[in-house]
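Bug #77: duplicate submission created two jobs. Keeping one. Sequence:
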Amino acid sequence: MSSIRVVLIEDHDLTRMGMKIALQQQGELVFVGEAATGAEGVSLVNSQQPDVAIVDLGLPDMDGVEVTRQIKAAATEGKSTKVLILTLTDNQETVLAAFAAGADSYCIKDISSENLVQALKLTAEGNSWIDPAIASIVLQQVRRKEATVEIDAAEADYKQVLEATPLTERELEVLSEIVNGNSNAEIAERLYITVGTVKTHVRNILNKLCADDRTQAAVRALRAGLVK
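Kept job's structure:
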């Protein structure tokens, strides 16, 4: 294929500089811009329309999941920037949230330059690169989706429960933090409440969504449009 136009969205200066140099040395790649915040990154992607945007999850103003969602929402007919998540975390909830937001590929930051280039090529071609470190998480989710009868029944159950007992405003805030992959301690700190209160909200959320765990709750929240 022709050269691949790449944008890098990464807040750590040294990491961004090192990756920029590595990418510029690859003849198949054209480095068209960089950004240190999510807002700058989304704006850069919208203006440059690169083939692939490399997105870090831990950005200062908005997380990479939201950046991915905004990039995909702004896609025009016939032109859609692919998103390659590059991060340190292999947290199950974060991985699933990233893919639910529209991420095309997911790499852990210890990936070699050679493999990163390969990942970019595959992603630009419309395929997905899934880091071996998180492959099992994706496989489990695929297997879960294959149980269609069980899932459909469960979704019907939780929707009926939500109609009778909708989530409170605070529960929606906690649910949003769960989707973003934050732990109970992190949620408590961000929302200025105790960890015990967070646990109570999480328990209520799981009950209302008929979910067995936080991951299932996050997936159902995204499917139902409860979290944007």
